[in-house]
UniProtKB/TrEMBL annotation:
This is Pseudouridine synthase. Residues 262-271 have a biased composition (Basic residues). Pfam families: PseudoU_synth_2, S4. Transmembrane segments: none annotated. It catalyses: a uridine in RNA = a pseudouridine in RNA. Residues 347-364 have a biased composition (Low complexity). The lineage of its organism: Bacteria, Pseudomonadati, Pseudomonadota, Alphaproteobacteria, Rhodobacterales. It is an enzyme of class 5 (isomerase). GO terms for biological process: enzyme-directed rRNA pseudouridine synthesis. Gene3D superfamilies: Alpha-L RNA-binding motif, Pseudouridine synthase I, catalytic domain, N-terminal subdomain, RNA-binding S4 domain. Keywords: Isomerase, RNA-binding. Its EC number is 5.4.99.-. Belongs to the pseudouridine synthase RsuA family.
């Protein structure tokens, strides 16, 4: 049996990720733009200039872009930007026109736009520092719905938009069906709401021109679940990371944002004389002597006049007569005894009338009459 020489063993898959993917994650550019930068000789790996994106790199490799070291990838972030008219959506403009990046706040990190809006269009433009999110949001296969408010010149009828609803082919390029609603006529212009699921260059303008009308204003009001709302032109608002993760189906970070802690209400203190609770017995003050006090066996939230053994629920020590505040001897434990009465001694013994209804002594039995 012949053995395969070591040199003929197929090479294992290189470790790491493609250089363009790493650059996109770091927020340098999209994968496609990163590949162009590599081909232009603007990227070096371990001191050597590369001209092909077919290279895998790891964390150990030293990468520079335009002479600057590549920063560690930051957590993915997303912003809503209200693009005004007169700005182009590009990093550099060959004609020297102002770009959307010239209009952004100085403290923002390096970002990329999700899709584009032409110079005469306005409205919602998504910005992100993550090339993977940019690609995910731009792909037609993801089906993100883009909604626009469109003003056209003329007096259209509902039937005029049938070709847009069915799908158009313009100059050999196929356009997917659009959702079109005729909102209102305003003088010589009409307002429409148009929704599309792909972002081809000047798609709405070209489609409207193909049916014989001209767009004189176009504003994007939403992109998927993200809404323009009341955001003023030129303003930027960051999307909460939790909202971004939920909407895009991203995995949670190592330290995800926890739910806000609900305020806890202070616990109400319970009476210290409740029976059946473990813990040391706490003496209570003597009763005030009100004859109409409730039976001491019930918990009313107020001192009951008795001290209880908290481990067993039985009276511990002397009890007090709530009506008089004096020691009343040993408790009889008679169920249903009325408050304010003194113990009656042995069960069934009649009270002594000479003592005004008070019970006679029980020690030694009844006294013999004198002769």
């Amino acid at each position: 049996m012949s053995k395969t020489p070591p040199s003929a063993t197929p090479a294992s898959t290189p470790k790491g990720d493609r250089i363009a993917k790493v650059l996109a994650r770091a927020g340098v550019a999209s994968r496609r733009d990163a590949e162009r930068m590599i081909e232009a000789g603007l990227v070096t790996v371990n001191g050597a200039t590369i001209t092909s994106p077919a290279l895998n790199v790891t964390d150990k490799d030293k990468i520079t872009v335009e002479g600057k070291p590549l920063r560690d990838p930051e957590p993915a972030r997303l912003w809503l930007y209200h693009k005004p008219t007169g700005l182009v959506t590009t990093d550099r403009d060959e004609k020297g026109r102002s770009t959307v990046y010239d209009d952004l706040p100085e403290d923002m990190p390096r970002v990329m736009s999700v899709g584009r809006l032409d110079i005469n269009s306005e409205g919602l433009l998504l910005l992100t520092n993550d090339g993977g999110i940019k690609r995910q949001l731009e792909l037609p296969s993801t089906g993100w719905l883009r909604k626009y408010r469109v003003r056209i010149n003329g007096r259209p009828q509902e039937d005029d938009f049938t070709p847009l609803r069915r799908g158009l082919v313009i100059d050999g390029e196929k356009f997917q069906p659009m959702t079109v609603s005729l909102d209102r006529q305003q003088g010589a212009n009409a307002w429409l709401t148009i929704s599309i699921r792909e972002g081809k260059n000047r798609e709405i303008r070209r489609a409207i021109e193909d049916i014989g009308f001209t767009v004189n204003r176009l504003m994007r009001v939403s992109y998927g679940p993200f809404q323009l709302g009341d955001l003023k032109p030129g303003m930027v608002e960051e999307v909460r990371r939790r909202v971004m993760r939920d909407q895009l189906g991203l995995e949670a970070e190592e330290q995800p944002e926890g739910p806000p802690k609900r305020p806890t209400r202070p616990q109400r203190k319970r009476p210290s004389t409740l029976a059946g609770r473990p813990g040391p017995a706490q003496p209570t003050s003597a009763p005030t002597g009100h004859g109409g006090a409730k039976p001491a066996g019930r918990s009313t939230g107020k001192p009951t006049g008795k001290t209880f053994d908290r481990s067993g629920g039985k009276p511990a020590g002397k009890s007090f007569d709530r009506a008089g505040g004096k020691p009343a001897g040993k408790p009889t434990g008679r169920p249903g005894a009325k408050p304010g009465t003194r113990p009656t001694g042995k069960p069934g013994q009649r009270p002594d009338s000479s003592r005004g209804g008070r019970p006679s002594p029980t020690r030694g039995g009844p006294k013999k009459p004198r002769s």
